[in-house]
Write a structure and sequence with these properties.
Serine Threonine Protein Phosphatase 5, Tetratricopeptide repeat, single chain, 17% strand, alpha+beta, Jelly Rolls, 429 residues, 3 domains, twelve-stranded mixed sheet, 15 helices
Length: 429
């Protein structure tokens, strides 16, 4: 190569590949000036460098695809590359999923811990707690015997609900977050989201809204049994009833058989025994199906008995628990027609409103029921007025809802003042 090759651009002089060889060969047989930039361009054009560029891209792409395939085929537990700590390539430990509990018409004992129940209901039963659940007609029915249970309930389809029974109280909910705690002295409800209706033996007790708590009133002490000298002589059939009372604790089947035998006698004593049987099956045996059958038998055998209205109320309280909400509406309407001056008619209206609103998502019918009970005193009237405003808001009757919330807040000692104020302020914006 001549001494003048130092005037060529450095990449052309030093390239060891085909381009450099072609350059040196070109230099020997040309008379072109070697220090012109145009010479570099002409050489590149003659080497057809663009095709070489595309060949380089194709080779790189092929290598990348092959490397990706190797990654996909790499064994799940392959050893780490040399020099890399084993902890850097270990797969993360799988997160344990909450067990899905399969439920049917018969009660199933729930284990402690986090659970998934029917309809995507997430539950957490505290350690040492005792509860059972069953699914019937789309309604999830839980019985809390002791301890604490927390539930996250997604919105339920129309006609379906979740019910929790504890002692003589029933908590009805469609979609919310709440917890129920029960021990030998207290029964508490805490609501984080939504609304929970509380009832007892078919009568509305309270509606608990988001951020509110409720505690069952203490049970009245049982009256002291009369002394022996104060006991009056009793009939033999009544003495049999006293014998039934001696069965306690795990002697439930014996007491049920005793009450059934006593009920066969007919008359007022038979009606009382049949009613006591229904109450025992409902409250102590936690068997709402058998209890409902007992109360229905009482009503059929003693249609004009002294405990007829009590049987009606018991049936009304059990039907929603069994998911038979349509029948509960029929029963409550029949009761209101037969007992227009009943002291608990406002509670019946409130119960009907809860079924229409929460179960059938019929805000229009619920609004009418709540309005009927709005003038009632105490907690029943308070809940009715608040829920009446809630239904007006749901129906899009904004001006009426705002006025209803304002009137509700104007009364002292309202149970849902915080929630009502938040809703009214939102409507004003």
């Amino acid at each position: 190569m001549s001494k003048q090759d130092e005037n060529w651009p450095r990449p052309m002089r030093t390239e060891p590949g085909p381009a450099g060889a072609a350059l040196r060969k070109y230099e020997q047989g040309t008379s072109d000036a070697r220090n012109e930039a145009a010479a570099y361009d002409r050489v590149l054009a003659r080497l057809d460098r663009p095709r070489a560029y595309f060949r380089w891209v194709w080779a790189f792409g092929t290598t990348a695809v092959a490397f990706s395939s190797l990654l996909l085929l790499w064994p799940e537990h392959a050893p780490p590359p040399p020099g890399l700590p084993a902890t850097a390539v270990e797969a993360p430990a799988p997160v344990a999923a909450s067990p899905q509990i399969q439920l049917g018409a018969n009660p199933t004992a729930l284990p402690a811990g986090k659970l998934v129940l029917a309809g995507g209901v997430a539950a957490e039963l505290a350690a040492g707690s005792s509860a059972s659940a069953r699914l019937q007609n789309g309604t999830l029915d839980i019985v809390l015997l002791s301890g604490r249970i927390e539930l996250h309930v997604p919105p339920r389809p129309i006609g379906q609900a979740l019910l929790i029974a504890a002692d003589q109280f029933l908590f009805t909910v469609v979609g919310t977050v709440f917890s129920v705690s029960k021990d030998s002295r207290h029964l508490d409800l805490q609501v984080s989201e939504g609304l929970v209706a509380v009832s007892r033996t078919g009568e509305h007790v309270a509606t608990v809204a988001s951020g509110e708590t409720w505690e069952a009133p203490p049970a009245a002490p049982s009256p002291a049994p009369p002394s022996h000298k104060d006991r009056a002589p009793r009939l033999a059939r009544r003495a049999l009833g006293l014998d039934c009372d001696r069965f306690t604790g795990d002697q439930g089947p014996q007491k049920v058989a005793c009450l059934r035998e006593l009920a066969l006698g007919g008359g007022p004593e038979g009606e009382r025994a049949q009613h006591a049987l229904g109450r025992y099956l409902r409250d102590d045996m936690a068997d709402p199906t058998a209890a409902l059958a007992a109360f229905e038998a009482q009503r059929a055998r003693y249609p004009r008995g002294e405990l007829r209205a009590d049987a009606d109320r018991a049936i009304i309280g059990l039907l929603p628990r069994l998911g038979r909400h349509g029948e509960a509406l029929v029963e409550t309407q029949s009761f209101l027609n037969a007992q227009p001056e009943a002291e608990d008619r406002a509670e019946m209206r409130l119960l009907r409103g809860d079924i229409y609103r929460a179960i059938f998502q019929d805000a229009m019918s619920a609004e009418r029921e709540y309005e009927e009970g709005a003038e009632s005193p105490g907690r029943t009237g308070d809940d009715s007025r608040f829920l009446h405003a809630l239904c007006l808001e749901a129906l899009g009757r904004t001006d009426e809802a705002r006025l209803a919330y304002r009137d509700y807040l104007a009364q002292p000692g309202t149970a849902h003042a915080g929630e009502a104020k938040r809703r009214m302020e939102r409507l004003v914006r």
